[in-house]
Amino acid sequence: MTSPAPPTGDILFGSSFRLVDGDLVLAADHRGGEPQLVHGLANLEQALTLRLLTPFGTDPVNTGYGLDVRGAFTGGDNRRTVKELIRLEVVRTLGSDPRVLEVAEVLFDDDPQFVAQVVAAGGRPSDHRTRLWQVLVTVETIQNVTTSVLVDVEF
Question: Which Gene3D superfamilies does the entry mention (predicted)?
Answer without folding.
Answer: 3.10.450.40
